[in-house]
Amino acid sequence: MTARGRGQIALTASLASFRGLPGAASYCGSKAALRVYGEALRLDLAPQGVGVTVICPGFVVSRITAKNRFPMPFLMQAAPAARLIRQRLTRNPARIAFPLPTYGVSWLLGVLPPGLLDRVLMRAPRKG
Predict the structure, then answer these.
(1) Per-residue DSSP letters for 57-113?
(2) Which of 4, 14, 22, 29 has the smallest count of CB within 10 Å of its CB?
């Protein structure tokens, strides 16, 4: 792509990348690493004409979400989620995060002081 001077890389992280959640340390940590890697890679490759977009979906119907035993707000079917991603990728955004209400909550959890949230999140339903 850099040799051609054009291209688009899409990396799939998760809204879980904004804050560590109980029972999901490995999942949240790996998605956070991928999100930050993609953000840095975008800056490195932009001058060479290659776009990088980090995709941060909320809950999408899949084999992973089928195992969850807790409420999943704004759970999306896979086909509409894929259409949304494909449509937005054409504009080379830095991030595609959806659905908006879950993104807002995830972002807020990521910027609030951990000491403020820890007691509340320790009582949250655990993944897996």
Answers:
(1) E--BSSHHHHT--S--TT-B-HHHHHHHHHHHHTT--SEEEESHHHHHHHHHHHHS-
(2) 4
